[in-house]
Specification:
The chain is of the alpha+beta class. It folds into two domains: about 5-65, Arc Repressor Mutant, subunit A (Orthogonal Bundle); about 100-185, Jelly Rolls (Sandwich). About 30% of the residues lie in helices and about 25% in strands. The strands form three sheets. Strands 1-2-3-12-6-9 form a six-stranded antiparallel β-sheet. A four-stranded antiparallel β-sheet has the order 4-11-7-8, with no helix packed on it. Strand 7 (about 145-150) and strand 8 (about 150-155) form a beta hairpin. Helix 2 (about 10-20) crosses helix 4 and helix 3 (about 25-35) packs across helix 4. The longest helix has 21 residues, at about 40-60. It holds the Pfam family Cupin_7.
Amino acid sequence: MTTRVLDMSIEDRATAYAMGSLSPGERDEIARERLYNSELDEHISLAEQLFAGLEAGEAPAPTASRLSSESWSRIEAAMSREQAALAGKHAQECSDGDWRVHGPRIEFKPLWSESAILIRCNPGAVEERHDQPPDLDEHILVIAGDLDIGGRRFGTGDYVRVPAGSVHQHMETHGGCLLFTEYLAADGAPLVRPEPLVEGQRAFGR
């Protein structure tokens, strides 16, 4: 992250993002951080709502009557392409869905099953050392941010497998991270009846 962005408070970063006063690179950095920093995401949403209200008061939004038939045709064509591409599929944005509290500064949500989840760790989140279940391998992919396991720093695109029956070492994140985690039987087969996680249950290592 650039020095200028690092020196900003979380409120200033959110305001600059909402106002469009960041460079393209800085905006990309904050957009990635927003995926796993729920406090930043909340501040940006509030700032966007605030500035959207101000803009609406200063200048009326375009109405349907002001759009040309050519513009409407392009909009309809774009919507048709999207509907055709996603027909029969399930799509969900990162911020949507059933995010559940796992513990201090950590949330998770199931994807296509209870054994395939996204884990959102806010800056400073910690998961203590614990035993991995004897019948479950844990596969962790870092989507964004940083993950520290036993002093080794993992970043975007890095992968870690925690074998069944092993010791799951202490993990923490300094700037926050978004993880994709899947639990598979030790022989590599998907779980037949994965037990759903509940609030407070371990998201790392179940």
